Amino acid sequence: MATDFEPSIFQDAIARLDEAAKYTDVDPEVIEQLRHPMAMLLVSVPVRMDDGSLKIFSGYRVQHNNDRGPTKGGIRFHPDVDVDEVKALAFWMTCKCAVVGLPFGGAKGGVTVNAKELSKLELERLSRGFIREMADFIGPESDIPAPDVYTNAMVMGWMMDEYSMIHRRHTPAVITGKPLALGGSVGRDDATGRGAYYCIKELEARRQWDPKDIRVAVQGFGNAGQSVARLLHADGYHLVAISDSRGGIYKPEGFDIPSLIYMKNESRKLQAVYCDGSVCEAVDAHVITNEELLELEVDVLIPAALENQITHENAERIKAHVVVEVANGPVSSEADETLLADGVLVVPDILANAGGVTVSYFEWVQNRAGYYWQEEEVHSRLREIMAREFNAIYDAMHERRISMRTAAYAHALRRLGEAVEAQGTQRFFEDAL
Ligand code: NAD
Hints:
Helices cover 44% and strands 18% of the residues. The protein has 15 helices and 14 strands. Mean pLDDT is 95; it is low at 1-5. Nicotinamide-adenine-dinucleotide binds at residues 147-150, 192, 219-225, 243-245, 290, 304-306, 326-328, 353, 356.
């Protein structure tokens, strides 16, 4: 919740528009439109719990802007979800889809719930109940949800099924991130981490890195964090620190990431282990807090958990040379200025984590065509998009001597501006009079 001294997440998010607008000749009307989410639906979702009691959960869906196409964005289940956060996340989706040139606008949804406290049956009832409330607000040609924090492919499958039952027709294109057997796309499961990995590979080429010299810390070891860690480890990068919501582990020589993933998925706990087949042995590692992980002496820091992790309070203590924002909004705008002044390169979320929505777009295309691609095709098309947009933004950053974030927003604004201006702005209508 915002205070008089601290802007809300949404206010902080849209503050970046003004800075980016200085570097485009986009019509002021475009900026004004982007300050205001297009539509919001707030719902109460009643769920019958396993003990027979009834609980009511608050749910939200914000459609931010649809000038470039149907709105698109994930659904988050988390105790801290509120309308302000969902508005900010929806705004980022509008910018993200424009950054990678997808024919989508931005949206986001969420339910205020600690999903870890629900049984599987309760989780299914909540997921289906949320869609019953949202059934007239979303649709394959208007607003297409996807997974986010603490929602996964199975949840997407339940939601698609519920929507299809309500509308009495099979509608896989209403939601992406589904299980493969229910119309999901190969390559969607690791797409967010893979997109960030392709950005890091472009940076590796630009900065002539040798992966074996590069130390990486990853905050958040869920879907996105695990994927980027696994791909970097396979290329020889040293993954020296990893954390989840309970805390982190640090080992200067680097972890064997496949073993950590195996143990995390088997035991739900993050443990420093080395596995040979299914036999895992504990290895030495320092236990660290999430705060300590962020301040480690590493080359690349990858926040892959939640927003507002690097703020004015700790920005000065960040020692990484590069921050790759896999999470949405992990660096506050105040912290951004400190990092820029300290020479830290921040690869912004609206580019670094755009791999997820890009493969969601591929899934939607496949659902509508009824024709499914091979994994190789998904990977190569994703790499082409990520590399093209990364390099365009990286070059603009150097040419204009601005931060990579401002360059990314300016890149998005140019595309959004073209869509808004194609419908006419004040300038056009004044000329016509
Ligand atoms: P997830 O639920 O699979 O994983 C989240 C991870 O963060 C878990 O390991 C959890 O333990 C950890 N975590 C939670 N609170 C933490 C804390 N305070 N400190 C450290 N770790 C903490 O979620 P995900 O899908 O991997 O999403 C992670 C981030 O990436 C989110 O910001 C999300 O919006 C963003 N993102 C995800 C996708 C996607 O396709 N999954 C796409 C774009 C952006």
